[in-house]
Amino acid sequence: MNAGRRGSLSFRPERRRSPAVRAFAFVAVVSFGSVAAALVSQHVFQMQPCPWCVLQRLIFVAIGVFALLGLAWRSAAGSRVAGAFGFLLSLSGFAAAMWHQFVAAQSASCKLSLADRIVSATQLDTLLPSVFAPQVSCADAVYLFGIPYAFWAAAGFTLCAIATLRALRLAAR
């Protein structure tokens, strides 16, 4: 039995989660939630992905993996490694989203673009085509509530970058 803050008795052991753990949990939810939302959009609402969309999915998955690593490896070193890679991937995801919206979406075709080459090099488009196979051109922009999907992805990457930066700051203490 533990005494609570107000002097009452509690039968639950006190478990406080560190702010770094909460930050990594938040990043995992945002990153995997973003991929889940993209898959629902694709398979339920027929909003097909282009190569840049697929690359952003891949980056979200990688961010989520590093967030899970930060949750599992609960040391200062683990938080630094997971936070650093998560932060760098978040920045690269933001850059990919901006490139997607302002450059790739303006071209008639994005075949053989950097995104297409990266996705093809991972072979995920053949291993998991329902998740990682590009279906349309970048010019066929997808909108959600009147906002381009690339901007939604950029917002997700920004949230992940802020949270991983917070985890990095907390690990430095």
Describe the structure concisely:
The protein has one domain: DsbB-like (Bromodomain-like), CATH 1.20.1550.10.
- Assign the structural class, choosing from mainly alpha, mainly beta, alpha/beta, alpha+beta, or little secondary structure: mainly alpha
Q: Are there runs of 5+ residues with pLDDT below 50, and where?
A: none
* Largest sheet entry: 2 strands, antiparallel
What level of helicity do the residues show? Answer: 55-70%
Order of helices and strands: EEHHHHHHEEH
Strand content: under 5%
Task: Report the CATH superfamily.
Answer: DsbB-like
Average pLDDT works out at 88
CATH architecture: Up-down Bundle
Going across the major beta sheet, what is the strand order?
1-2
- Report the top-level CATH class: Mainly Alpha
- Give the domain tally: 1
Predict the CATH topology. Bromodomain-like
Tell me, what's the shape?
Answer: elongated
Task: Describe this protein's structure.
The protein has one domain (21-172): Bromodomain-like, CATH 1.20.1550. The strands form two sheets. It has a two-stranded antiparallel ribbon with strand order 1-2. It has a two-stranded antiparallel ribbon with strand order 3-4. The chain is built from seven helices and four strands; from the N terminus they run E-E-H-H-H-H-H-H-E-E-H. By secondary structure, the protein is mainly alpha-helical. The longest helix has 27 residues, at 76-102.
